[in-house]
Amino acid sequence: GAVVSQHPSWVICKSGTSVKIECRSLDFQATTMFWYRQFPKQSLMLMATSNEGSKATYEQGVEKDKFLINHASLTLSTLTVTSAHPEDSSFYICSARDWGAGTGTYGYTFGSGTRLTVV
Amino acid sequence: DAKTTQPPSMDCAEGRAANLPCNHSTISGNEYVYWYRQIHSQGPQYIIHGLKNNETNEMASLIITEDRKSSTLILPHATLRDTAVYYCIVRVAGTGTASKLTFGTGTRLQVTL
Fold first, then answer.
1. Strand B70-75 versus strand A105-110 pairing type
2. At residue A28, what are phi and psi to the nearest 5 degrees?
3. How many of the other CB atoms lie within 10 Å of CB of A65?
4. B49 touching A (Cβ < 8 Å)
5. Segment A50-90, tens digit of pLDDT
6. Which residues of B touch A50 (CB under 8 A)?
7. B100: nearest CB among A49, A103, A113
């Protein structure tokens, strides 16, 4: 089945620095990927939709200049948290969408998540 | 996308069937129902999805009512490893930015001995 690899699985960074998270589709091409954020005991909140070769589409209230998304190839999307602050500490999860020929609709595969702690 | 309503928590004895309900009374004809689960500190795992017909795979069965306003996910023989938060998601068919998964609060299923 479809596999999505997300790295790193956890990262600790100092306040004011930037952190890059990678999301790779290992056995399929994904023109569209998604980035979510999850705070403790809460559900996943969609941050943005990442489209290969074009600008990402951000959800309302998400700062595009703070959360930079690059989708330069059909198998890789990156999320860079710029000038990170303690309130950015969260669990970040990516998802890649692919067409299920056998199902006739899209499938969505999630990465294992990245726990970011800003100190 | 249509909003979904799920009970916040449920308990199930190991070996028994777990029946997780989901209400999506405002679903449109072109919207799919997806089920995912999330075990603590992991990414969501796909379980099953359907449009109109009932579906079954190696993990679970999905029963969609005839009017499509609600559905039930059935785990036929729950084990302790099925303890997780289960999300019922309704997604509009099509391409582009509309074709995304929006998560609700889900149901926390606790499987006990």
1. unpaired
2. -155, 165
3. 8
4. yes
5. 988 889 999 999 999 999 999 989 999 999 999 999 999 99
6. none
7. A49
Distances (CA, A) of B8 to A41, A81, B11, B76, B84: 12, 32, 11, 20, 12
Buried-exposed string B28-52: b where 16+ CB fall within 10 A, e elsewhere: eeebbbbbbbbeeeebbebbbbbbe
User: Burial of B93 by CB count in 10 Å (0-12 exposed, 13-18 middle, 19+ buried)?
Assistant: middle
Distance separating alpha carbons of residues A107 and A105, to the nearest angstrom: 7
Distance of CA B84 to the CA centre of its chain: 12
What does chain B come to in residues?
113
Segment A15-50, tens digit of pLDDT? 999 999 999 999 999 989 999 999 999 999 999 999
- Write out the two tokens for B51: 């449009």
